[in-house]
Amino acid sequence: MAERKIEGFDHKAFAKNLATQAGQVVPADIPPADKKFVVDIVYKFSFLCGDALVKDETINLNGQQASLITQFIGEWSFHKSIDLIRSKIDPSLREGILQRVAFTVFEIAKQATLKRMPQEQIIPLVEHHVNVCFKQALEDLKKKGVLDDKAEQDALSQSNIDAMAQTEAEKEAIGADMSDTKILKLASLALLIKNFPQAKLKSILSKFNKPEREVLIQYLSMKDLETKIDTKITQRCLKEIKQTLPEPQNMSMERIQKKIFKIVKNSDKEVISNIIKDERPQIREFVLCAAEHDCEIPARVANVICKYLEEKIL
Question: What CA–CA distances, in Å, run from 138 to 103, 106, 121, 147, 151?
Answer without folding.
Answer: 16, 19, 27, 8, 9
